[in-house]
Amino acid sequence: xxxxxxxxxNLDQLESGPWPSFVTGLKRLAKDKDYVxxxxxxxxxxxxxxxxxxxxxxxxxxxxxGGVIPRFSEIKNEKNEPVFPDAAxxxxxxxxxxxxxxxxxKTLRQFCDIWEKHGTGLIAFHxxxxxxxxxxxxxxxxxxxxxxxxxxxxxxGGAGPSVRTSMSCVGAAxxxxxxYDEARALRSVVNSTLDxxxxxxxxxxxxxKFSGCPNDCMNSIQRSDMAIIGTWRxxxxxxxxxxxxxxxxxxxxxxxxxxxxRCPTKAIQLKDKAKVGKGASISSVAVSDSQALxxxxxxxxxxxxCINVMTGALATGTDKGATILVxxxxxxxxxxxxxxxxxxxxRLKTDEDYDKLVELGxxxxxxxxxxxxxxxxxxxxxxxxxxxxFLEGLDLDVxxxxxxxxxxxxxxxMDGWDEEVAKINAKKAAA
Amino acid sequence: MAQAQIxxxxxxxxxxxxPYLHPKLAKNYGNWKYHDRPRPGVLHHVSHSGxxxxxxxxxxxxxxxxxxxxxxxxxxxxxxxGRVRFTIRSNIEFMxxxxxxxxxxxxxxxxxxxxxxxxxxxxxxxxxxxxxxxxDIPGTDASGVVKALMDELHEEFIREEMPNRVHLSTSCCxxxxxxxxxxxxxxxHTKPPVINHELVANVCERPTVVARCPVAAIRxxxxxxxPSLEVDEIKCVCCGACYPPCPPxxxxxPEHSKIAIWVGxxxxxxxxxxQFMKMVAAGLPNNAPRWPEVAEVVKRILRVYKNDARPWxxxxxxxxxxxxxxxxxxxxxxxxxxxxxxxxGARANLNASTHIRF
Lengths: 431, 358
Prior knowledge:
The structure holds two protein chains of two kinds.
Chain A (H helix, E strand, L loop, with lengths): L8 H4 L9 H9 L3 H16 L4 E2 L12 E2 L2 E2 L17 E5 L6 E3 H14 E7 L6 E6 L1 H13 L15 E2 L13 H9 L3 H5 L9 E4 L8 H4 L2 E7 L4 E2 L1 H21 L7 E5 L9 E5 L4 E6 L8 H5 L4 E2 L4 E7 L13 E8 L3 H21 L6 H8 L1 H7 L23 H14 L1
Parallel strand pairs in A: 8-9, 9-10
Antiparallel strand pairs in A: 1-3, 2-4, 4-7, 6-7, 10-16, 11-15, 12-14, 13-14, 16-17
Chain B lengths: L22 H5 L4 E8 L2 E6 L4 E7 L4 E3 H14 L3 E4 L5 E5 L5 H10 L30 H16 L10 E4 L11 E7 L4 E2 L1 H7 L2 H7 L5 E6 L2 E6 L17 E2 L6 E7 L14 E7 L7 H17 L6 H8 L1 H8 L27
Parallel strand pairs in B: 7-8
Antiparallel strand pairs in B: 1-2, 2-3, 3-6, 5-6, 8-13, 9-12, 10-11, 13-14
């Protein structure tokens, strides 16, 4: 039995309604823990005054420079003592999950036991970077809790100017649209940068994210420094039985309005079955005895829409890999940046391909470490130095797939033009 | 000096995911053929091998007490061969090998208060951040906003009746950890930081703070004989970027830290290219514990979108078709001068054409 609860008239209002309530969860924990009684009081004070009251500090585990998010209460009385003394320290441990966030219940129960013993008993699945967030423990217990979690085979995530914890989609484990082994790529790449992850010494944070197809379920293009987004080079695959099944259920109106008309590059046409084209870059599939879909794959930008609508009837190709985009981040401080293409197609099939991806990730981090200013992300660095300098620094070939349009202004020094043309021709001849 | 044995961390990194996979997922890894959705909240995946697996998705409160997690484990042990996974939006997924277990599993989740849904064209769980519970710079509480809103949107979570999927996010400051979304709820400060000059010299690395400002509004100054910082309040855009490196520059204010609503963020490449979200409403009060004014605007946008968009149009696709004037007209949101971009790259957001829908 814990001490008496503080009154929480604001938080109490978050216990009603159909959605699961974190307040109810906290109250259940508070029955046994003075720590959580005071945490509830602390949070209620924020609700009442509409302000936050945690300040950072320095708390860590032996051997690592980051991964613990230290929090000390700033709600103090006139003697400068914490008003909620049992919750005066509320540090969080960021722990890296397996790619795809799969768990067995034995592991989850062990997490619960450890955090019930050393912390508040509150665990978030997951933080926005993808960490398991063990929320709330004292300075004294940080090392103890980490040691037990670490013994289970789990390791600290990133914080500060470091490589951060990464995420991959469910991907190959349960999605037909997967274009590579996302979780394997994540583990290979991140585990080759652990020194930069655990000991923050980069100009600023660096995030990798791994999405298995252009639906980009990990939001990698908008919030990672290096986005690895699955794609394919060959033709869309088709399955006539599933196409006919889809058509029988949805009919021609939906086929035209929801599939064909929504193709961004008009690569799909509805054809008389007898008149379907036969070229090497054409995919086709009958939807009925008289009509068929015809896709010109040279025009297709792999947007995924038709495949999303007619899953299985249409499917990603088999010459698979990823498009690599660099530089995504939110506003601060030069404005929002999408990741942009630096490798249009990176094959991901063989062990050697995955090794090359690891090498590319390491090279980009090295370039970032050497060239970015303090508190500058990759996208801001590229904005400052220009994409071409970045590509040349990494020995990546320029490609028209990297731009939405060529230059629209003449303000560039171009006396190296002939040399560049000669280089490209030489490369072509050698290929 | 006697010292306890120091344990060095085992720098094992990201654990191998394979041992944690549901057996059907492990067996058919990389070999899935297609999926369909027999009912909201349930995915049915079919492998090229002929194997089938059903996934039941349920919403959670994201930050869970150990009792909730153990309950979810009990359910997984009973129905899902002791395996679960989480989605990026903190939904939990139970994989089931036998279709007959789907309905009892849903019933069991319902019995314990976990809403089943979040699949297909539903409104999924709101991606969110820490807020007052744990963050050091929050303007609001994330978990509370999310709980209050998901209570209101619950019916759209358990159904699949929207034109396309709807992703929401909340963020407690303009850093926007919640990320891009179809609709995002983000704190927007409206007054410059209030500086405690007594503390700046001791707490803040002043050159770092000066460098952090996106509009160069901060400069070093002596105040009351102490080295401190001052803000050019005319230049200041109230972004709060100075507050994390310098906590004595308090940006949060119970009255003047407002909430803004953004729409049309889209990560997927499906149909149009990925798009950033755009601010469409601001000045909403930070009205804990249930933020009714925010809920009203979000629900209004969702209602108009649901009635007006065509099948498969995300909010961004819908606005691309109807145009911004009609978006503001239909949602009855005021289009003020503050919504005209004037930051770097702003000209790309101006209408350089005569394409106007009358």
